[in-house]
């Protein structure tokens, strides 16, 4: 029997049975669906065509052979299911226009193979974040501004099924016993889920979307995030294997900038990335991506970020890239930077370069290492070359506001100097922030690396040319 050999068994008279909120169809789609507990149809009950959708869905589940379906790739599965849905509509005698039939078919397929009501939002490339606050409130961020959408889930049970489908695809779980989880979608988009009893309104799902076309520094220049001269400086620092820490607030573009800077790594280098939820998408041929693992039901088996960073040192990396530095792994990353792994990078949450250094110091202290504050600061000064500060401004735009060089540890403090800063000059008539990048002083300690890679003349030209 073929995957759809039971078409003749479609019952046009039987009422729609109770069926799963997210159909348990094992396919080659990026996100597999474990069988959920909720017995309700995955359709919006307040929709005028709810009864038709429920009937089609029930007949579809009765018709298909799940074992055969699981052997097909995602594209073939979607195409064939679309044909079956059209046949069911004809057999049951539903009177639907072509557009309405396509809309109903797309909604059912999204519930079976995708993420239900979120699929249209995921298809849009202009959305940076999707924020689901319970079943009836979905916000998106477009051009740095947050707006409410008309998208809703049928109930919190349907939303919970979507959350479980996402986290199960990366071998994780989310439930009352483990109510917080970080995961990712197949395209690398970052996902955070928090559910009852911690989230009071219902499951809260946050998706940091990745664009289909990977952003480059040139595109950031075109969008006004930085000047061409500032982009040249960052390219030089990355290509010259400077150790760089990207600092910024939530949603300020740290990971996006990190991805952009890795484009200037040499294709002959071996790069090892460490992340809580893998989202970096490096274009070099020799990349090893590592991801942390949460504890299992018994509280065992956890692989923390520090374990990954330590193991990196045994993997013969040329560069180590840490998606986000959050804890005691900061010390291991600095150790790596100090032991021949020049050009390593990471991101960190902080509002200024000075605050970033303080946070780095505090994170190292979390490891309970027998080091004095002075020894920790010297370790930071010796290992780190550059702090790049990103910021989301009040008009929603994201800008590079500082490029700061770390010099040395003297007089019980880390000495640093701003190479470049963003100077605010006013607002445009439409309320957009105006300004330019001011080049203050050329690199000092980094100049040896820059010279070694033949980039000294290009670098010095940026500072003699003036502001960008």
Automatic annotation (TrEMBL):
Database matches in SUPFAM superfamilies: P-loop containing nucleoside triphosphate hydrolases (SSF52540)
Listed Gene3D superfamilies: 3.30.450.380, P-loop containing nucleotide triphosphate hydrolases
Protein name: CpaF family protein
Transmembrane feature ranges: none
Biased composition (Low complexity): 13-26
Organism annotation: Lacibacterium aquatile
Pro residues: bias regions: 27-42
Family label: Belongs to the GSP E family.
Region described as Disordered: 1-44
Short name of any one Pfam family annotated for the protein: T2SSE
Organism placement in taxonomy: Bacteria, Pseudomonadati, Pseudomonadota, Alphaproteobacteria, Rhodospirillales
Domain Bacterial type II secretion system protein E: 114-393
